[in-house]
Amino acid sequence: MISGAVVVAAGTGLGALAPGYAALLPLWFLVGAGYSLALTPSGRLLRRSAHAEDRPAIFAAQFALSHACWLITYPIAGWAGARLGLPVAALLLAGIAVVGIIAAMRVWPPEVAAVRHDHPDLLPDHPHLADHGGSGRHEHAFVIDGLHPRWPGQR
C-alpha cells in the first residue's frame, strides 16, 4: 500500500514537469496504477483489523475518512491550480501525499502475527483468558475491540 502511495506521489509530482496534455496521459495511467496498488488491499486490511460485528463500522469509518481527504484536497487543487498554476498545484499535492505517506509509516504498526499482552482487569475465569491458555499473559492476533481498546504499550 505504501508503494502504491509512493507511485501516486511521484506521478503527481512529475505532472509539474509535463509540457502538455500528451505527456500527462502516461502519468495519469501511472497515478491510477499507484492508486490501485494503495487501495486494493484496504478491504483485506480492514477485515483483518476488526471482528465481524465491527466491520460495518470500520468500513464506514474508512469511507468517511477517505472522503474527508478528498474534501480537503479537491479545493486545494482547484485553488492552487487557479492561483499558482498547475505545476505548483501538482507539487503541492505531491507534497501532501508525501506527508501522508510519512504519517502512515509512523502510525501503522508493523506486521505482527501475534502480540503478547495481558488483561489485569479481567477475572481469571474470563472466557477470553480461557481461550488463550487461562493465564493473564497471553499471545494472539491483535484486533482493536472491547477487550483490546488500544495497542499494547499505548496509553
Short synopsis of the structure:
The chain has helices spanning about 1-15, 20-40, 40-50, 55-85, 85-105, 125-130, and strands at about 115-120, 135-140. With about 160 residues, the protein is mainly alpha-helical.
Essential attributes:
155 residues, mainly alpha, 2 domains
Architecture overview:
The protein has 155 residues and is mainly alpha-helical. It folds into 2 domains: 2-107, no CATH class; 112-155, no CATH class. Helix content is 61%, strand content 5%. The protein has 6 helices and 2 strands. The protein has a two-stranded antiparallel sheet with strand order 1-2. Helix 1 packs antiparallel against helix 5.
Describe the SSE topology.
Blueprint: H1 2-14, H2 21-39, H3 42-48, H4 55-83, H5 86-107, E1 115-118, H6 127-131, E2 137-140
Helix pairs in contact: 1-2, 1-5, 4-5
Identify low-pLDDT runs. none
Outline type: elongated
Biggest pleated-sheet summary: 2 strands, antiparallel
Element-by-element helix/strand order:
HHHHHEHE
Q: Walk across the major sheet and give the strand order.
A: 1-2
Q: Tally the structural domains.
A: 2
Give the distance, in angstroms, between the N- and C-terminal Cα atoms: 27 Å
- Helical fraction equals 55-70%
Mean pLDDT: 88
Per DSSP, the total helix count is 6
Indicate the proportion of strand residues: 5-15%
Tell how many strands the DSSP assignment holds. 2
* Helix-strand makeup class: mainly alpha
Compute the CA-based radius of gyration. Answer: 21 Å
Oligomeric state of this protein: single chain
